[in-house]
């Protein structure tokens, strides 16, 4: 291999992949957290401290490394989404290069046809890798942060396979050990790694079986694969009783294993449709369940898939690489598209790894064109077209409400989507729209507890306590272990000045969910009100222990130490709160007050300005900033602050404070 080929092989491809990936995913770095991101990242206390690795392990051992990567993201950047998206995109680029390397070593195993020998060898894996990189069906795995598990599993899958191939080709035990090691690591990314032994066996049959006996080498991989269900079994049921395995591998009872399998025939055909014509992509499909083999289009989908497999068998002797590509798709889909029912029967991210087989196959088929220039031009046109579609698809993800409305336009009867859209409207302070979406969710699925709780929160804000309590009681009737609903019942009791009843609900909340920080903090607040500061501190510290990322616990600790006149400790906890949530306006104001009290006027001024920057209507910050400026004899700068404070107090109906601001303003005017 000359220098030019070496450059193309080792530098040009990764460089091109990086540039192309940055272009088509450049609009994803601000994409907010969606759906499962909230559960596994935003609301997950275990990723918010690297000291909680045992708890993180227990959260889900089969995805431990995925969640550990989120913990590092949080450690370095908190909940700033840019870091999470950057890691996902880096993993996608690495997977693209691994796929490219996998194709290179594979093409070295086979004798190319005469017409392919005229084509530069590097072009086939190059275009296949870029197709893998840019296809819109990959967006869900890359842009949807919580699907990092798919990216990590694919990385381990491809790397383990490459090491295995090198071990068989070169006969070196180090490669074999590396393959086993990577496969073992993959066990803790996502359960799809269990199909790796089948993929290795497929590769042996297609390309390596002539060399020597391979069965003994495969056994350790099958043993590793079997450890995944055992690991999950012990995690979920605390037993190794195999009888429980069949319970564990059925996530839902809404359909039988046979119905799920029949539905998957239609699902796989849908994946192929998206590969050929990627229109109508959806994050949350409303996919019909196939109740009978003879229902349309189930029998037709089955026939199409059997025909494709039969074609692969027929191609095996004369077009072995193409046959391998087809078999690869079915092998890598076999766990999630078989007889193990999953609530969501279809998800585009499940085709991320199978996409490798499709991309390889397409590049090979186009390479059979007689003229290499036509092949080159055709692939460039396809890549440019798909890149544009990917960029446009990612635009849908950039706006939380926009994404949810896109889903509803395609899946109007998904209760959880309407519920999530309601939450998004609450964040925008559009309570009427949120109420409408919650009611729609309840109408679609009366047994879905969350919209009852969320609608109750709106009614609580509006002072409609009785209606809110009825909704919350319905929520706990549906889901007796709903900690959030008990907590909200406690909040209503607190607002109604029934502190004893409130504490009962808070205790019930942590009784069903011991680490539920909001309820723990509420119990601390109740004890602080009674004057039992020691017990209050115990609860606040407990909340911090269970959820190191819960900012309100730090705020309450700061308030407690402020009451004790321990300004140093108060400042520490307030600043820790701001590290976890930089938008708590009242804390900036409070910290400014402490700095002012300690004579640290420059810092006080900065904190007041931070408060104003985040909430231009926060009158107290203007008044306090004016006070700090006045202490530094900066009267001219203080005057506009007092004027704004007076205006805001008046507009908010706070006559007393408006009068106070006015009197100070007169005093400063007199001094001038």
What does this structure look like?
This protein is mostly helical. The chain has four domains: 3-396, no CATH class; 413-508, Serine Threonine Protein Phosphatase 5, Tetratricopeptide repeat (Alpha Horseshoe); 514-582, Tetratricopeptide repeat domain (Serine Threonine Protein Phosphatase 5, Tetratricopeptide repeat, Alpha Horseshoe); 584-672, Tetratricopeptide repeat domain (Serine Threonine Protein Phosphatase 5, Tetratricopeptide repeat), CATH 1.25.40. It is 73% helix and 0% strand. Helix 22 packs antiparallel against helix 23 (465-478) and helix 22 (449-461) runs parallel beside helix 24 (483-495). The termini are far apart. Residues 114-119 have low confidence and may be disordered.
Shape: elongated
Number of strands: 0
Helical residue percent?
over 70%
Strand fraction: under 5%
Sheet of most strands:
none
Poorly predicted ranges (pLDDT <50, ≥5 residues)?
114-119
Distance between the termini: 83 Å
The total domain count is 4
| Mean pLDDT across residues | 89
Oligomeric state of this protein: single chain
List keywords for this structure.
single chain, 672 residues, mainly alpha, Serine Threonine Protein Phosphatase 5, Tetratricopeptide repeat, 73% helix, 0% strand, elongated
């Amino acid at each position: 291999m000359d220098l030019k080929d070496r450059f193309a092989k080792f530098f040009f491809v990764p460089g091109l992949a990086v540039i192309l990936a940055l272009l088509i995913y450049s609009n994803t770095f601000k994409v907010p957290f969606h759906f499962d991101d909230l559960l596994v990242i935003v609301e997950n206390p275990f990723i918010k401290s690297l000291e909680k690795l045992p708890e993180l392990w227990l959260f889900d051992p089969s995805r431990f490394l995925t969640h550990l990567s989120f913990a590092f993201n949080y450690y370095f950047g908190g909940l700033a989404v840019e870091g999470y998206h950057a890691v996902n995109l880096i993993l996608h680029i690495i997977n693209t290069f691994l796929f490219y390397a996998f194709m290179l070593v594979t093409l070295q195993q086979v004798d190319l046809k005469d017409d392919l020998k005229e084509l530069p060898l590097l072009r086939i894996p190059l275009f296949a890798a870029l197709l893998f990189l840019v296809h819109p069906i990959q967006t869900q795995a890359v842009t949807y942060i919580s699907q990092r598990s798919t990216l990590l599993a694919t990385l381990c899958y491809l790397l383990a396979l490459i090491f295995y191939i090198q071990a068989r080709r070169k006969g070196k035990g180090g490669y074999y050990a590396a393959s086993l090691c990577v496969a073992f690591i993959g066990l803790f990314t996502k359960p799809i790694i269990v199909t790796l032994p089948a993929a290795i066996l497929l590769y042996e049959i297609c390309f390596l079986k002539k060399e020597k006996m391979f069965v003994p080498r495969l056994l350790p991989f099958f043993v590793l694969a079997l450890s995944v269900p055992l690991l999950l079994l012990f995690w979920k049921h605390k037993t190794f009783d195999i009888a429980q395995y069949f319970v564990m591998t059925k996530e839902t009872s809404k359909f039988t294993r046979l119905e799920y399998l029949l539905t998957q025939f239609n699902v796989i055909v849908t994946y192929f449709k998206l590969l050929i014509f990627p229109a109508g992509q959806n994050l949350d499909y409303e996919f019909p369940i196939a109740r009978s083999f003879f229902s349309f289009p189930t029998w037709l989908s089955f026939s199409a898939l059997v025909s494709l497999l039969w074609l692969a068998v027929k191609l095996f002797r004369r077009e072995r690489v193409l046959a391998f590509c087809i078999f690869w798709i079915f092998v890598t889909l076999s766990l999630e598209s078989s007889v193990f029912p999953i609530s969501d029967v279809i998800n585009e991210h499940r085709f991320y790894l199978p996409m490798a087989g499709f991309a390889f196959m397409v590049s090979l088929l186009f390479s059979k064109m007689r003229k290499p220039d036509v092949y080159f031009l055709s692939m460039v046109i396809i890549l440019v077209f798909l890149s544009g579609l990917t960029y446009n698809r990612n635009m849908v993800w950039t706006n939380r409400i926009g994404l949810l409305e896109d889903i509803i336009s395609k899946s109007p009867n998904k209760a959880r989507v309407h519920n999530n859209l309601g939450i998004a409207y609450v964040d925008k302070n559009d309570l009427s729209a949120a109420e409408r979406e919650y009611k729609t969710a309840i109408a679609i699925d009366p047994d879905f507890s969350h919209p009852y709780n969320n609608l109750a929160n709106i009614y609580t804000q509006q002072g409609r306590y009785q209606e809110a309590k009825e909704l919350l009681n319905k929520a706990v009737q549906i889901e007796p272990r709903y900690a959030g609903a008990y907590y909200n019942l406690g909040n209503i009791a607190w607002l109604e000045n029934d502190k004893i009843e409130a504490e009962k609900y808070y205790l019930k909340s942590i009784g069903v969910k011991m680490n539920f920080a909001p309820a723990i903090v509420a119990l601390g607040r109740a004890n602080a009100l009674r004057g039992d500061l020691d017990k209050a501190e115990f609860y606040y510290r407990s909340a911090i222990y269970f959820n190191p990322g819960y900012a309100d616990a730090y705020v309450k600790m700061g308030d407690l130490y402020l009451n004790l006149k321990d300004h140093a400790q108060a400042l520490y906890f307030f600043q820790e709160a701001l590290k976890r949530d930089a938008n708590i306006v009242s804390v900036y104001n409070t910290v400014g007050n402490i700095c002012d009290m300690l004579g640290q006027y420059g810092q006080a001024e900065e904190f007041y300005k931070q408060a104003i920057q985040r909430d231009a209507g926060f009158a107290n910050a203007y008044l306090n900033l004016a006070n700090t400026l006045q202490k530094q004899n900066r009267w001219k700068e203080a005057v506009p602050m007092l004027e704004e404070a007076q205006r805001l107090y008046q507009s908010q109906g706070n006559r007393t404070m408006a009068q106070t601001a006015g009197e100070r303003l007169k005093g400063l005017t007199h001094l001038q």
